Please model this.
Amino acid sequence: MKRIRYLTLGSSTLACMAIVLSATANAAQVYYPGKFGTAPMDPNRPVPHVGPYEVPYVAPKGAKSGTWTDLAGIPAFAQGPWGPMLLTDGTVLFDDYCTNPNVWYKLTPDKKGQYTTGAWKATATMPNGYTPMYFAQQVLTDGRAIVSGGEYNLYKGSCTWTWTNQGAIYDPVKDTWTPVSPPPAWPNIGDAASIILPNGDYMLATCCSSGAQFADGSISGDTVNWSIVNGWSCGGAACDDQEGLTSLPNGNLLLVDVWDHGSNYNESWIYDTGAGTWSQGPNTASYLSDTTYYSIGPAALMPSQWVIQFGDNGSNNLYNTKTGKWSVAAKFPLAGYDCGKCSGGSPARRQCSRPGQPRRVQFAVALLRVQAHEAEREEGWTAATGERPHPGATYVVFRRQHARSADRSGSVVRQRDPFSV
Model:
């Protein structure tokens, strides 16, 4: 008998798969990620996805699709919000990037676990001079959060391309940010990828070194002890910039390479967390990135133990973690939509941004259903379209039944009533 699994989309994947266009004609300045050493991209483009991925969630049998709901009492963000982090006590941090001093806001659900009626509160400000935008971030196993780097940082009153190597740890109990040192001889961290390893260490990639280079951070108190892990060469480029790290069921990591590729594939790499070494994996089944901004969509480990890697050009791939083989996944079912929909200069992409013109707020969500049994696989997209509940809203919350949270110790807590995530 075949088992049907459903991909439940976390907030980060939805960021790639939900198109939300501004309803306001006069918007604030927007800043975009880009390749190190090149000119900044067009500031009129909508923001592509940047940020961590939600831990895979197994939906209960018969679970129904959720709904979008506006959040109440949203703070008056000056620039943000950015970089939401779900802490182990169930609260969510949001960064008001490139503000001086840099403020993070915390959303606490009400006593019934409802975020839509939760309370907002400003937290302690970040260390002086550290006001990042597009950065590495993770929630540590002890309940604290760490932020490293930043493609942008506030400089002389302006949010400027700096590729900073600063970093800080947030303690939610003490409500304090403490500076941390970067890996040795790393002048830049920028918008680097990061991940928590099975042993609790914090792995960080570099945005800007020649060749692939990573740092394994063992954290004791407010001190990060770094060990450098070398990767591979790609002709002098920053081989691990603009890429993501995905955890595999066996504890190893998967990376799809946007710098080393052919016309119909990308190379991939596997990190052995036990041995501390990188080795080349199988090529993807199709070309997933682009040669202009060297970007790619997010990847997520699904409950079926397949990894779905979303492309930047409309193509998507599936990675079978049991066989170690890639296969072509269904393309997005929405005409002209992909994770890089608005990242280029073609007329089809320019239509995503029309400065000075008010436009209706629309969103589109597509769910990929994967039916898997051993080597067999069937798949299909289900699309749903509609308007956001309130065109002027800054946030919306996607509600689903039987979601999970975790207490400060990291133990998973099952909520009796449905709550928003």
Observations:
- Residues 286 and 321 are 17 Å apart (CA to CA).
